[in-house]
Amino acid sequence: MRRNDKEIKDAKLIKSLLKKALVCRVALCDGNKPYIIPMNFAFKDNCLYFHSAREGKKIDVIKKNNNICFEVDAKIELLKSEKPCNWTMNYLSVVGSGDAQFLDEVEDKIRVLNIIMAKYSGEGSSNEDVEKPNKTIFEYSRESIKKLAIIKVNITEITGKKSLH
């Protein structure tokens, strides 16, 4: 990172940002073309989890090249100034990379869906049962589970950056 003074070195803060962010931008490489998409996600045990339809461009790209890059941000605030070149932003961000894999077992899919649903619904987020594959807080139809792809990203590199004025 060019600006060491902006680097977030606190691993707890980076993990907190990953847990609280609502959208994760996932960057893939489709041959020699970049491809980026915003996705809902969850963070657990140094992994990111995404859900998706089983078909589509991102699925095809990941099957060809499972290396991904991701970005999340928080506390975005535009700071205006009298001079245009002095406008700036407050923000916290996390950028990282990792390798993606598909989870195919029904129990794994339910476990990950419970983690994602607990995050976004606020229900069960403090309940240990949310991660037990045979104990669901949320109900999913077998048909929905069959149509669903769960993508697990093992994070291999991560860095945080802040600009707070």
TrEMBL record:
Pfam families: Pyridox_ox_2. SUPFAM superfamilies: FMN-binding split barrel (SSF50475). PANTHER family: 5-NITROIMIDAZOLE ANTIBIOTICS RESISTANCE PROTEIN, NIMA-FAMILY-RELATED PROTEIN-RELATED (PTHR34071), FLAVIN-NUCLEOTIDE-BINDING PROTEIN (PTHR34071:SF2). This is Pyridoxamine 5'-phosphate oxidase-related FMN-binding protein.
